[in-house]
Amino acid sequence: MTVEVFDPHDMLKETSNIINDVEESIDADLDLERMDFDNILVCGMGGSAIGGDIVADCLLTHSDRTIKVIRFPELPNWASTNSLVLVSSYSGNTAETLSVYDQAVERGCKVIAISSGGKLFEKSKADGVPFVTVKSGLQPRNAVGNTIGYLFNVIASVGGPDIRDEVRDSIPALKKYVSTLTPMDSKPRAIAGEISGSLPIIYSSESLAAIAGRWRAQFNENSKLIAFDGHIPDMNHGDITGITGNNDIRVKPIILVEEVQTKLMRNVVNDTISVLKGRDLKPYVIRIPGKTVFEREMRAMMLGDFISLHLAFFKEIDPSDVSSISLLKKLLSWKMGKKKGRRSRK
Asked: Pick from 1, 113, 175, 275: CA 20 to 30 A from residue 43's CA?
């Protein structure tokens, strides 16, 4: 099927390479020493934070130490010299992430920086902080494969839980799956057609919560489409009233669930679907297969990424354009820089 699309920065190709980026980065040779630490903090924004969410989900049943993703410009009070702080910024210039880096160094945390360069590289070099270089030239949200692979690699290399073999074993099946998503007449385009013109709200079971957030972010950035996300069963204690009582906006609930579920969760999901259908809403239910948490999360993520591109193509807009985010980043960088300058003169 031949379809003309407006994709001047070849976002389709970048998206198609995400699994390859995981494979490449998880096998990269890292010159890192083993460390003693009581907890792990992954600090980043946007795609860097979502990469952290996915890694934290996958390590949940393997780690005897807490793994926390930090999306704020301030480090938690409990972070200490016994904390491993992984500071991830694709550009190396994210103001919030640089702020957290400074605080982590000041507190004597065990810090490792992950970036393609920028100010984060300069700071880490001056401070003698280990720096892991990711490849440059990507849209930051499409660098998520690098982020995920390097986080797994770094955590294992310094003495944390190591599931790199499990991840490697999933790569062939994931590559094959991505090949089914790339044709222009594939499943993502059909689902995008169902969603187009609506307000998508992505709900998921707990194990896919990070992916529901990724779908929302990709709909926002790639599709220039407002979207929201939430969790089942929590949405049944609030959201469902607003969704079923709204007659002014064409809401489209999208439900992401694992193909294999416990009996309890299956009942909860089925009851949720029944209530939505009973209120004249037609939820789009997507069941995600896979042998491991990593495989299921990556399958769900890749599907959502391609759907978001087709939503942009339907609107004939450039999915790579994020000019509003770029403007906000400049403003934040300037203001946070001024505040730091005032503190240093006191």
From this structure: 175
Residue 156 predicted with pLDDT over 60: yes
User: In the numeric block, which tokens belong to residue 6?
Assistant: 């407006």
Distance CA 144, CA 163 (A): 18
Is 273 among the domain residues?
A: yes
Residues 164 and 27 both lie in one domain = yes
Number of separate domains in the chain: 2
3 state SS of 277? helix
Domain encompassing residue 249: 182-315
Is 90 exceeded by the pLDDT of residue 346?
no
Within-domain flag for 341: no
Note the pLDDT tens digit of each residue in 39-55. 999 999 999 999 999 99
> 276 is written with which tokens?
């939505």
User: Do 109 and 208 belong to one domain?
Assistant: no
Instruction: Give the DSSP letter string of 90-151.
Output: SSS--HHHHHHHHHHHHHT-EEEEEESSHHHHHHHHHHT--EEEPP-SS-GGGGHHHHHHHH
Q: How many CB atoms lie within 10 A of CB 195?
A: 22
Continuous segment of H or E residues that includes residue 66: strand 66-70
Query: How far is residue 315's CA from residue 311's CA, in Å, rounded to a whole number?
Result: 7
**333: how many CB neighbours lie within 10 A of its CB?**
16
Amino acid letter, 304: G
Q: Using an 8 Å Cβ cutoff, are 85 and 112 in contact?
A: yes
Tell me whether residue 214 is exposed, middle or buried, using C-beta atoms within 10 angstroms of its C-beta: 0 to 12, 13 to 18, 19 or more: buried
In a domain, 1, yes or no: no
Cis preceding linkage at 233, omega within 30: yes
Model-wide pTM > 0.85: yes
